[in-house]
Amino acid sequence: MHEPNFLSDALAADLPLLTRVLDGVPVRVGVLDRPGRYHYANAAALEFLGLKAEELVGRTLLDVRGPEIQASWAPVAERVFAGETVTWEGWSDYVTRGRCFTEETLRPYRGSGGEVELVIAYARDLTDLKQQEQMLLDQVQALQRAEQLKAAIVDNALAAIVTTDAAGLVVEFNPAAEAMFGLSRAQALGRPVSEVIIPPRHRQGHQAGLDRMARGEEPRLMGQRLQLHALRADGTEFPIEMVLWQTQTGGQPYYTASINDMSEKVLAAEVIERQRDALRQSEKLSAMGSLLAGVAHELNNPLAIVMGRASLLEERTEGTPLHAEVRRIHDAAERCGRIVRTFLNMARQRPSERAPVLLNDLVRGAADLLQYSLRSSGVQLSLALAPELPEVSADADRLGQVVLNLIVNAQQALQGVPAPRELHIETGVDKATSLLWLRVSDNGPGVPDDMRERIFDPYFTTKGEGAGTGLGLPVSRSVARDHDGELLLEDRRAATDGRIGASFCLRLPLQPAPPSVPRAAPRVEAPAPAAQRLLVVDDEPEIADLMRAMLEGAGYDVITAESGAVALKMLDEGRFDAVISDLRMPDVDGAALWREVSERQPALAQRMLFVTGDTLSAGAQRFLADAGCGSLDKPFAKSDLLARVAALLKPK
Fold it and tell me: How far apart are CA 12 and CA 523, in angstroms?
């Protein structure tokens, strides 16, 4: 029980019991007059101010609270003494307590005469409550900021964020998920995630996983990078990479998946793999081409002998029963020569250059090369080549590769097709458009409508595994366009047996060809002047004897040498008007021979002709270009040899 506080004489007689009651309440109570002098303060007020009653009563606010509070008292006192009750709350500074948050109510006290004589002040210290409230507000604001930050991260994340509750219902679906799956957030929320993004074939496994975790079993896939397929709203599936994790909120588990669309990455990987396959295939073809080129080169010498001897024998049997048989041998040898030249043209690596080209010759060369393969595949090849087809300015090697590609594509399309398997090639000229055209058509299965626009795309192929790289048609079209032409897939009608087949048409513009050396035409052999002596150098005796026979038949005086070293000795001992030499020989090769002749007899060095089968060698091509000498590729015809020698000996 508190002892009675000291009261002024005016109140002591009237408030003895009230003072005891007021001392027991936790609210600070004080009584002040108009000047702000204390007449009473209960126990709570005295304790708060840190004063005893006798130290407080009779003192003013100025003494106890300071000038700032005293100054604010006057206008408030005016209102209260006018009969108004004033309530306020806020932060105030106390000498003993420091800064506190207080709620105060000032009520007027009317005396017996009805006039306001005193002010009763009630005050509560709400500092702790206000601080707790501020702490709670700070926490709420921090949570709000964190939630806003999380929402900003989730909403602006490049990855799709999908969150479900323990039952598998979607509770979060960010904008990236909306864009990825083609479904709005409103459409996704509350629905089973299995219906929203999981393909039907995986839904049973997904549900089994939810059931397993509902039984408290350890999750198997949490935190792992998973390569899966997801489902878009339009029903299409696409590859994704997903990381799944679990969080606990309010005692309930939630599962969040971060999902990346892997479509472009998978497509890029497929393109890279196709490119690798194409590179491996190209390496195989390059190795095969080098092998075939080597074989073709080794065939040049014996083939040159067969062609040359057949030509000489054909001349000698003119008008005899054997002439027809010899002619057949000669024609077969020429066909072998075309095949060898086609191989070498395919394997030759040199900058693109254009010259007058007869398209029909390219077709015949490709047909000769592939005739056995076509025949063994049961493909019947028919040619309808327009006679006297004009020349076109083109790169013969590249254009020949286009013809080969089209024929090989047709052959592969006919594999597995019931007989008859027909391949038809025709050429012609459209005078109205000044276009020369080549058409390659077959009676195979044709090209499906949904693939017609894609067959010219790089790496796209309709062939089986390992049967193609998807580069033949794109490269062929590129070659055609480089020649200002076009390669088209034509529309065809179904035949009576239901086959549609495919028809590709190559169109090339007829344009003036650049100046070129006229084709060597067979000429009537005229006896050479008696004084013209030729030195023939070749380490193959048969080749040397063949050229001697051809040249002596034309009236030349011919000496042969079996090596470059022997040739140099002969040049020291005798006079020669020209030298016809092999380029690749074991001791002193053609290049070394030319250098020696250039030093000893510079004029003769300008009258050297090199006969060689080494057409693939970059070194050989570089030497011939630097030396400025003519060359004749093996195998060769007699007329070609005589024409080159005549040109070599022609006075300049």
Answer: 157
% helix / strand / coil in the chain, to the nearest 5? 45, 25, 30
Q: Could you give all domains of the chain from N- to C-terminal order, each with its CATH number?
A: 9-125 (3.30.450.20), 157-261 (3.30.450.20), 355-513 (3.30.565.10), 533-649 (3.40.50.2300)
* Residue-by-residue DSSP string for 524-540: ---PPPTT-EEEEE-S-
In this structure, what are the phi and psi dihedrals at residue 609, rounded to the nearest 5 degrees? -120, 130
List pLDDT tens digits, range 73-95. 888 888 988 889 988 888 877 76
Residues 6+ apart with CB under 8 A from 468: 412, 461
CA-based torsion, 135, 140, 141, 143: positive or negative: positive
- The residue with tokens 């990825």 is 180
Residue-wise pLDDT tens digits, 197-218? 899 988 888 888 888 877 877 7
* Cis preceding-peptide flag for 390 (omega within 30 of 0): no
For residue 483, give the 3-state DSSP assignment: coil
| Residue 381 neighbours by CB under 8 Å, 6+ apart | 367, 371, 374, 423, 424, 425
pTM of the model: 0.42
Residue pair 230/199 in contact by the 8 Å Cβ criterion: yes
Structure tokens at 97: 């307590």
With beta carbons less than 8 A apart as the criterion, state whether 125 and 104 touch. Answer: no
Question: How many CA atoms are closer than 13 Å to the CA of 646, on its beta-carbon side?
Answer: 18
CB atoms within 10 A of CB 436: 23
Q: What confidence tens digit (pLDDT) does each residue in 20-46 have?
A: 777 778 888 889 998 989 988 888 888
User: Three-state DSSP class for 57?
Assistant: coil
